[in-house]
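re: ur msg from earlier - yeah i can do the zinc ion complex, just paste it... oh wait u already did. ok heres what im feeding in:
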Amino acid sequence: MYGRHPTILIFFFLLLSVGEYLYLPGAWPRLSTFHKVLGFFSIISPYWFLYLAAYRDPGIITPATHSKYMSHYPYDFALFHPGQVCRTCNLIKPARSKHCAVCNRCVAKMDHHCVFINTCVGYENQGYFILLLLTTAWLTTYGAYLGLGLITENIQARHPGWRLFKPSSFSWHDYLVLLTFGIQDDVGMGSVTMLALMTTPLVWGLLGYHMYLIYCGTTTNESMKWQDWKLEMDDGFAFKRALPRDRAKDPRWEASWTRWPVESVQVLVRTDDGSFPEAGDHAPGVGDWERVWHLRDVENLYDLGFRDNLVDVFIPGYSFRDETVTDEERGRRSKKPKQTRASAVVDAAT
Ligand SMILES: [Zn+2]
Ligand SMILES: [Zn+2]
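and the outut:
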């Protein structure tokens, strides 16, 4: 239970393979050339992206890769602070990274540990993970669509008036009896069609959830951290103040340069009892502390707008520094302003 084990990966692989083994012998000869070609690519693409998502490096942080990942994202001084060391890996945690307790290693832009691919979803394989979800969602949808067409043909061969959407000339009883008959006509294809029909909403739902996280410029891990902040804010225990733009970075804890186009302009802290932070403490930032009641009042540094968030997922190492970002454009470069950025992140998680 607590270590890496490919049980679920094998289960997922078998679900695909056994499903296809049962479905194809009856269905394949009845398909047109167009559906055979499209079907071929629909079948192989989930395997291909399963392989890439599961066996590519998710972004493991080692002494060799550490400086690269340190320069990927700046610290946002809300979820990620400079100078925190992973006690197991003995390395400073780069912004957005997390130590995976299952794999026992730190992973860059850790999203979550996924049992279906038996590895973490992180900076380097998140694009493949999304494509795995997309191709699997397409496969189950397409398989169900073709299967329902073939089942309908089975039934209409003997009862020409039957339709998939119940005609009024059929009672529910007759409609369902004939549907069952059509499924049983080719039990392998029929049952896999029904299974595909039932799993399709789950896969699309999972894909939709991850697309929404990308839209918000966040990860599963970070959305949970924002949820914790929301509780602090509800209690009135969260405070923020400004972080100077020309702040000198301590090279011991932070990369002096990152490829990210924006730096944090805020520091977020909590106090144990809701009193304002002490003037003498060493929290970074300047000026007075301001109590924060709502997530919408803090900025999610890692949201550059949907288009750039997608680029960050699908083009690892892309340098956003080539484009200059004005303050006007922060977090809204390719679309309408988002009113509640951090709060949208929590909506995604709940
Ligand atoms: Zn670690
Ligand atoms: Zn892991």
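cool cool. Residues 100, 102-103, 113, 119-120 surround zinc ion (ligand 2) (CB under 6 Å). ping me if u need the other ligands too
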